Amino acid sequence: MASIEIKNIVKQYGDGFPAVNDVSLDIADGEFMILVGPSGCGKSTLLRMIVGLEDITSGDMIIGGKKVNDLAPRDRNLSMVFQNYALYPHMTVFENIAFPLRLAKMPDDEVRRRVTEASDVLELKDHLERKPANLSGGQRQRVAMGRAIVRQAEAFLFDEPLSNLDAKLRGQMRTEISRLQRRLGITTVYVTHDQTEAMTLGDRVCVLRKGKIQQVASPRELYEQPVNLFVAGFIGSPPMNFLPATPKGDRLETPFGEIVLDQKRAAAVAGHDLLLVGIRPEYFEDASLVDEAKRPLGSVFTARVDVTEWLGDSQFAYIPYEAPESIQTHLRELSRELDAEELRTQAIVSIDSTSRIREGREAQFWLDSRKVHVFDPETGDNLTRDAEAGAELTRMATQDRVEQIEEVRAASVGAA
Amino acid sequence: MRFLFRPPAHEAAELLSLPWDQPLEEWDEQLLLEVPQRGISRHVVRFVASGRHVYALKEIAERLARHEYALLSHFEEEGLPTVSVLGICVDRPGQQEAILVTRYLEYSMSYRWLFSSPRAEHSAELLLDTMVELLVRLHLAGVFWGDCSLSNTLFRPDAGALAAYLVDAETVERHPTLSAGQRRYDVDLARERVGAELLDLQFGGLLPEGIDPITTAEGLPPRYEALWEEVTAEQVFGADEQQWRITERLQRLNDLGFDVGEVELITSPEGARLRVETRVAEPGQHRRELLRLTGLEVQERQARRLLNDIVAYRAWLEQKTGKPVPEPVAAHRWLAEVYQTVMAAIPPELAGRLAPAEIFHEVLVHRWLLSEKAGRDVGTEEAARSYVANVLPRTPPEVTTPSVIAGRATGR
Hints:
The complex is a heterodimer of chains A (416) and B (412).
Chain A: E1 4-12, E2 18-27, E3 32-36, H1 43-51, E4 58-63, E5 66-67, E6 78-80, H2 93-103, H3 108-122, H4 137-150, E7 155-159, H5 167-184, E8 188-192, H6 195-201, E9 204-209, E10 212-217, H7 219-224, H8 229-234, E11 241-248, E12 251-254, E13 257-260, H9 263-269, E14 275-279, E15 284-286, E16 298-304, E17 307-310, E18 315-320, H10 325-337, E19 346-351, E20 362-368, E21 373-375, H11 387-415
Parallel strand pairs in A: 3-8, 3-9, 6-7, 7-8
Antiparallel strand pairs in A: 1-2, 1-4, 4-5, 9-10, 11-12, 11-14, 12-13, 14-21, 15-20, 16-20, 17-18, 18-19
Chain B: E1 2-5, H1 9-15, E2 45-50, E3 53-60, H2 62-78, E4 85-90, E5 98-103, H3 111-114, H4 123-140, E6 143-144, E7 153-158, E8 161-166, E9 173-174, H5 180-203, H6 213-218, H7 220-232, E10 235-237, H8 242-255, E11 260-268, E12 271-278, H9 285-294, H10 300-321, H11 327-344, H12 356-374, H13 380-390, H14 402-409
Antiparallel strand pairs in B: 1-4, 2-3, 3-5, 4-5, 6-9, 7-8, 10-12, 11-12
């Protein structure tokens, strides 16, 4: 197992277009790193440069302390998981996992040791002597993982592995991959365009846009302290709401009334004209259901509800708002860049599932102003980001990971 | 539901009445054709016969189906050795996956049956050479396969050799050119898959003794590198040897089964540098020539073989009549008097096991063997009789091409 250091990597194609543009990223030994972004952001190209499928225009790729720029894919000892799903019908599950080792002419006892170990982790032990014909969908995928495990590669690489599975199997596999990565403590790089996969799997997530890194952070830091409009809009589902806002002293004037900012944030937005305020759906609530203790921490406004969606455990209300043309243009551009459906000038707010707010009527909402962020629509910068609070979130995630890996390694030493 | 297909449209029209709204797995067996020899697939694949044609239907996610449809269409236009795609059916009710329809490659075999034929003894070698040639051809065209395996390839006997075709383009990526890393990785994947597939046959008791899966698979990368080098290498030589060096190189490429598109020669006082641009399309010079003379559509090596026989027949005619016989006349008489006679000797129950031109090639081989044993030329007719009685029945009935099976069922 190894760390992966990406240093000032550039990938330029024949036409001069930089698909990856000066990317530097350190992936720690045992870390689960996600590369995420809309199509064309360079995430797959970056993964391919790690694997050795794409030549590197400039910069250094260092795996386990060794520069690999000029090494053939095979000599980098990485494992592309799920590259081979095929199950061979005449071979037992054991042999279906073992064959890469057989082809490498590994001695029998070592093959047996590795396959047994892998099958323990994958809970395939009881199936080893069977033929693969009767395995379930999930078990088949685990056999494919087993092939990657027995190679004892430096790192696992995944290139959108779940994009062709149905929703049920996708959820199941996400859990399997996460569990497996934790149990093995193996360095993992995972490419996806799906922010849900990114948020649920990664220790850290690297958000890319047009070949450049936007932010590398734990899922929680990305969610709570996004560096810019792009990251804020990409992470979270339903997405963050962006409303036009004009600063006035320690307040922001918005279509949903005035929002009071604390001193620090008020200072950060002072001197700007038209801004965007970003409010996540869950920062809203039906005003009639807010605790008296909480109520003063936010503001209350009245709005007409267009549509409500009741989902049993939660409920969403859609509230249209007015926005000046310049803001609408920015929002249109953003949604195009995010590969998202066009952002309409309506807020999606999450309210308690017991709320009696109804479609087509006026209702009172409460808005938690503590967590809103304010963005400069021209540069996209988050003016109110608290870098220290963000870093603390990522530090906590890193600590969790290190502890987990230590536990795994201690356990495997104990077992040996 | 929505159908996208490539002309000729009448073929697709014949298929429209099939129950596309139902899962492929639940289609009535009456509609389907049992094809005994096929590779391993992770999707539901079924075969149907319509008119005189047989089609393979594969259920697969729409995104992949559209990707594969587009790629296979391009490949076919460029003359790359791939199966021919007819179309796709998307927007099926109940969120069902799309169906990709390809034309069945007649007289093709999956690797599982190559080893069961009476010619199995050299099959591992042949197989490797064929796979490697296919990979080199695809790589020259900027095609990264990503899943090169025996299961994803179909083989057609071609006058004692094999021709290989890509049948599954799900994982394929098209690039302007491939990097060395992409090529090596593709070859590594191929080595691993071929090894696993041969091991699987061995576990199933289906691999002839004497073929070692691991050694065979290990042979793939060096063969690939050697062929890639021969096809793409730049040569440097002295000005005085220029002429024969070029001829030698082009001849060598033709022998390897490649056509040359363009030759670039850069001369300088130190010598000449030769670079050849190899055509990615399958070579077709002999095929076109035979089609012009006889109307027969066969594969390249078969065509060369048949053309040689026409030349021999023409010489024999000229000798017999004592005057020149024009080529078209000779070809016409050869078709009626030699080729058709051999075809007529095949009883209906043995029809379709091998392509007619391949049978003709095998009869010529058989004739040579019999003649050598007898110490005289036994003639094509006698050779054909003996071949049909003793050799052809050893080709397993399972490899009978599906259109012939379908024709039998409908009495055609």
